[in-house]
Amino acid sequence: MAYQDTVRRLTVRDIARAKGGEPIVSLTAYTAPVARVVDEACDFILVGDSLGMVLYGMDSTVGVTVDMMIAHGRAVVRATRRACIVVDLPFGSYEQSPAQAFSTAARIVAETGCAAVKLEGGEEMAETIDFLTARGVPVLGHIGLMPQSVNASGFQVQGRTEESARRILADARAVEAAGAFGIVIENTVELLSRMLTQELAVPTIGIGASPACDGQILVTEDIVGLAGAFSPRFVKRYAELGDGLAGAVQDYAADVRARRFPGPEHTANLSVPKAKSEA
Fold it and tell me: Are 109 and 136 contacting, i.e. CB atoms less than 8 angstroms apart?
């Protein structure tokens, strides 16, 4: 799905139809400047609740609120023209009941203009996914490692044991049957992720999963070195903008302290009006 001169916003149907074809490209974006850049390369953009950790310095995604997701989702939608925009439902905003999930999702879609929402969970969330999709809210599923459950499960690779693999397989089947248009598979053993991709009729989007997945997603700040020193094993660095930013800030500070900035070219050099002489 290469970028074209005549820009058309990709839809959920476009993403679903990409199953088995050219790999789906996805990254996160939380702000308008990043979204504008990412939009030219990506098929869908996820406004992920990972913004809590990346932008707000939280220890996990658990503290992210619906209002935060709406504010950042709105900025990303406004800044983009091509990519399909998906917004995460944050922790605590959908698990209580399908009705709660619909209320949250409807608000996010209405106030951001996004195309779909993403929620974490497998068999236990199938009823909720069915409830949302039946009411016109497209859902991207998320199985394997689920960051919103990190307090219970930690950041371990999923699917290593027979029991874990069985659970993930059951989760994937339940999420597909419930009507999700695609499924993110996170930090799950490669063989299982490959098998799920072959079995499922909907696209799989890997993050620390398998190159065989129908698409891949990463956090943009991770791939350009802006997310701090920690980098997940499955992330490939394509640039080190953090080093460049640090250098630019140091150069700016040195120029200010040495009075090299601002220079004449950075100021409005208008002549000062002469005071009127007194009569």
Answer: no
